[in-house]
Amino acid sequence: MKIFDYRAAIFYVKGHRNMKFTRKDLPPDQMKRANITTCLTVTMAYVFYILIMLTSDRTTLEKIIFVSFYVIWYALTAIFVAKNIYERKAELFIAVGFCIGFGIISYLQNPTVMMLIFPVLLSLSVYLNEFLIMWGAGATLVFIITKMAQILVNNPADKAEQLNTVFLVCICLIMCVFGGCKAIRRLIEFSNEETNAVKVKAEKQLQVAKEVETIVNDVDAQFTQVRKDLSQISSTIDNTQIAIGIIANGADSSATQTQTQSEKTNEIQERLEHTNQTAAGALETTEKLRGVIETGKNESDELARQSVIVDQSTEQISQTIEKLVEHVGKVSGITDAILNISSQTNLLALNASIEAARAGDAGKGFAVVAEEIRQLAEMTKVSTEQITQIMNELTAITKDTQTELKNAVDSIDVQREKVKTVHESFITVEEDVKSLVGDMTTVSDEVSAVLSANEVIVDGISTLSGITQEISASTSASRTDMDGLHDSVSNFSTAVDHTFEALENLKAIAAIDEE
């Protein structure tokens, strides 16, 4: 191997050794600091060289020449190093430049000056370049041999002392080179060990990063599914809120309709009670009429005194009774209508109970039943008015009959022959009145039955109204709960989104570590 083949002697430290000499590549920042450190040491050496030259026994001209040479040479070295402070060229220029200066001063001065090579060689170890140390030692060894030859040729008076000094410098040089190379090797080994440790840690961190990335990917997938589920839950809650809103509106509407139906049913109840009272009054009036007829029959004997008047009165009574019979027939028809209405009302009451049990549709069917009840109530009202009118007419006719009977009584002495006929007529009227009393009793009973059935309907509507109000209140509470649930789900979804973003950031960091 050639001594000055610099590139052939370089050893690159990348995990293994492939040359005899070792060196470590320094990054630009470390190279800069190494160049500065070596420059400071070389500067101090140049200063000592100049001081030694100035204190030597050389002539003034020689001193000026050598000092100027050192200053210029140092300035050139400093300029070159400043321009290439981050590069390896500065390292070589410092070493070569100092060796040239060292060779000149070692040739011109006492061998003791050669001791200044040692701090410079030590400062070169900062480059962690074993070849550079060996190169500097080789150059120094050449200068030592040259100096020894000079001493032997010149044969000075202190020849032995100078040779001892040169020998001492040589021994120190060998020890310096040996120690420097060993130090460089150990420093490089330490650096490699540290690098390997860092590499192992980096590999462990990379493995951890991969595991973290795997976990993050799993959690990311789970959070993605959670976000989808939250979206579906939120959509379901929105739909549920809409449905609850519809149910609440329907419940409110049903409650309003139920309240209206309850009011109408109460109105029907009042009218049925009025009809019952009217029927009771008609029955009482008929009973009174029956008593009047009984009185007229008892007094019929007096009609014999006035036969003419009795005849006329009898004729009028006959006409009156015919009208009474006709009206009684009408009352019977009305009674049939009331019975029919009672029957339909009972059926409708049953339907209303069934519809009330099906309150799930909020009373649609009940509205139909309520409408039928309203129509039947209207028919009952008309029938009641007809009964009232007939009862009034019957009362008027009865009064006319009473008047005619009075005239008949006044004329009974004149028309005794007609007493028998009048008596028979009164018997007929009495029987008809009895029949009318029975019919009116039946009417009163049926009206009472309808009234009882309507009371059941009123109770059912009241119960339905209460249930509807409870449903409305429960629906409102459910709407409030759903609103709170919707807010909770929204807050949880926001937290999941933040966590998802943090996982994405962690995933990105793990990817960077892996790179």
UniProtKB/TrEMBL annotation:
- Which parts pass through the membrane? 34-52, 64-86, 92-108, 120-145, 165-184
One GO cellular component this record assigns the protein to is: membrane
Gene Ontology BP, a term: signal transduction
Identify the residues that the record assigns to the Methyl-accepting transducer domain, covering every copy: 229-486
- What does the UniProt keyword field contain? Membrane, Transducer, Transmembrane, Transmembrane helix
Which PROSITE patterns does the UniProt record give? CHEMOTAXIS_TRANSDUC_2 (PS50111)
The name of this protein is: Methyl-accepting transducer domain-containing protein
